[in-house]
Amino acid sequence: MATRIRPSSKRCAVIGGSGFLGRHLVEKLLGKGYTVSVFDIRQSYELPGVTFHQGDLCDKQALLTALQGVSLVFHCASPAPASDDKALFQRVNIQGTQTVLQECHKIYYNKDRLNSIKEMLLVLTSSASVVFEGTDIKDGREDLPYAKKPIDYYTETKIEQEKLVLKACDKENGLLTVAIRPHGIFGPRDPQLVPILVDTARRGKMKFIIGDGSNLVDFTFVDNVVHGHILAAESLRPESPICGKAYHITNDEPVRFWDFMSDILVGLGYAAPRYHLPYTLVYGLSLLLWLLSLLLRPLVAFKPTFTPMRVALAGTHHFYSCSRAKQDMGYKPVVGLKDGIRRTVESYPHLRHGA
Ligand SMILES: NC(=O)C1=CN([C@@H]2O[C@H](COP(=O)(O)OP(=O)(O)OC[C@H]3O[C@@H](n4cnc5c(N)ncnc54)[C@H](O)[C@@H]3O)[C@@H](O)[C@H]2O)C=CC1
Ligand SMILES: CC(C)CCC[C@@H](C)[C@H]1CC[C@H]2C3=C(CC[C@]12C)[C@@]1(C)CCC(=O)C[C@@H]1CC3
C-alpha cells in the first residue's frame, strides 16, 4: 500500500516547476523552508528538498500523485507564448487547469483523510496581458475588462484559465484561489526575452525602433514575481481580501520599451536600435507575414520574428498599477529595474557579442 503523506503547511507543489519562473519559485521556497513537489512534463534540474513528478497536466492520476500531502499549489505551467498551436493552448491552459481544480477538490474531500487540511490553496500564474488588445494601457488596474479580441491563442486561453481559477474560489468548500498577473518577466535563465532579442540582433534585425520609441512598458525581474507569488500564498486565508482576486505584479517602474531593449543589447555588446519605422506599417506587415505563414504552412514552415503580438508589445504603452497588491498583501518589489538588468546581462556570458 502506498504511504500516505501527512499534509504540512510547509509542503507545496509547483506545477510547471521545471520552467523559468517555476524554478526560481522553487529555489526561493526551499530557502524559506518549504519542501516542494515539482510537476512538469520535463525535468530540468535536481535539488535537495525537491521531489520531481514528470507528467502532463491533463493526466489526472499523475497529478493526484504529485499533489499528495500538499495543501498549497502554485500553477505556473503553460506552453510557450510564441507557439501558434491553438489545440495545445486549449488542452494545457484550459483542460489542464480544470484538471488541477478537480484534483485540488479531490485532495480536500478525500474522505478517509488523515488530512486535517483546513483549506487547499491555489496560486495561479496568470498574465497582465489578459487585458491587452494591442492598444495603449497606462497604469492599468485589475478592474479593466478582459480583452474582447485577444491578440493570440496564448492570451485567449490565459483569460479562460484565470476566469476558471477565480470562479473556483469557494471558502465553504475549502478551496481558496488567487491569480498573479506578472508582466514581461526577465532574469537569469529566461528562455524567451533575452535569447529572442539576441537572436534577432545576431541576424541583423534589431536596427529599427518601432514607432517613436516613447512607449512605456512594465518589465518585471523574476525575483519580484516570485516574491508576489509567495506573498499571495502566505496571505491566502478565508478572511483575506485576496481570495478569488487577480493581482498585477510588476517592477512598478515603467520604462521605455526601446530603452530597456537597448540596455540589454548594449550590456551584451550589441548595438542599440537607432532608425525609426512607423508603427502602423510594421504592424500591417507583421499581420501579412503571419497570414502568409498560415497559408504556406502545408508547404513550408517559417516563423516570423515580428509577430503581430510582439509588434504590438514593442510599439504601445502597457504598464500596470500594483496598488492592489501593495494594499492587500504588502507587495513591494525587492529588486530594482537597473539591478535586475545588470544581473540578467551578467547571467548570459554565452550570449555576449562575439562569444
Ligand atoms: N515569461 C513571461 O514574461 C510571462 C509569463 N507568464 C506566465 O508565467 C508562467 C511561467 O512562464 P515561464 O516560466 O516564462 O515559462 P516556461 O516555458 O519557462 O515554463 C513553463 C513550464 O510549464 C511546463 N509545461 C508546459 N506544458 C505542460 C503540461 N502539459 N504539463 C505539465 N507541465 C507543462 C513546461 O515544461 C515548462 O517547464 C506561465 O503560466 C506564463 O503564462 C505571465 C506573464 C509573463
Ligand atoms: C523582436 C523584438 C521586437 C522583441 C524581442 C523581445 C520580445 C521577445 C519580448 C518583449 C516583450 C516580451 C513579452 C512576452 C514575451 C517576450 C517579449 C515579446 C510575453 C508575451 C510573455 C507572456 C506574457 O504573458 C506577456 C509577455 C509580455 C511581454
TrEMBL record:
MF terms in GO: 3-beta-hydroxysteroid dehydrogenase [NAD(P)+]/C4-decarboxylase activity
UniProt xrefs under Pfam families: 3Beta_HSD
Membrane topology summary: Single-pass membrane protein
Protein origin, superkingdom: Eukaryota
Pathway where this protein functions: Steroid biosynthesis; zymosterol biosynthesis; zymosterol from lanosterol: step 4/6
Subunit structure: Homodimer.
Keywords assigned by UniProt, alphabetized: Acetylation, Cholesterol biosynthesis, Cholesterol metabolism, Endoplasmic reticulum, Lipid biosynthesis, Lipid droplet, Lipid metabolism, Membrane, NAD, Oxidoreductase, Steroid biosynthesis, Steroid metabolism, Sterol biosynthesis, Sterol metabolism, Transmembrane, Transmembrane helix
Enzyme Commission number: 1.1.1.170
Reaction it catalyzes: 4beta-methylzymosterol-4alpha-carboxylate + NADP(+) = 3-dehydro-4-methylzymosterol + CO2 + NADPH; 4alpha-carboxy-5alpha-cholest-8-ene-3beta-ol + NADP(+) = 5alpha-cholest-8-en-3-one + CO2 + NADPH; a 3beta-hydroxysteroid-4alpha-carboxylate + NADP(+) = a 3-oxosteroid + CO2 + NADPH; 4alpha-carboxy-4beta-methyl-5alpha-cholest-8-en-3beta-ol + NADP(+) = 4alpha-methyl-5alpha-cholest-8-en-3-one + CO2 + NADPH
Example of a GO cellular component annotation carried by this entry: endoplasmic reticulum membrane
Protein name as annotated: Sterol-4-alpha-carboxylate 3-dehydrogenase, decarboxylating
Main localization of the protein described in the UniProt heading: endoplasmic reticulum
Alphabetical list of PANTHER family matching this protein: BIFUNCTIONAL POLYMYXIN RESISTANCE PROTEIN ARNA (PTHR43245), SHORT CHAIN DEHYDROGENASE_REDUCTASE FAMILY 42E, MEMBER 2 (PTHR43245:SF51)
Subcellular location: Endoplasmic reticulum membrane; Lipid droplet
InterPro entries per UniProt: 3Beta_OHSteriod_DH/Estase, Lipid_A_modif_metabolic_enz, NAD(P)-bd_dom_sf
Keyword Flavoprotein listed: no
Domain named 3-beta hydroxysteroid dehydrogenase/isomerase: residues: 13-274
TM spans (from-to): 281-300
Any one Gene Ontology BP term: cholesterol biosynthetic process
Family: Belongs to the 3-beta-HSD family.
Organism, scientific name: Oncorhynchus kisutch
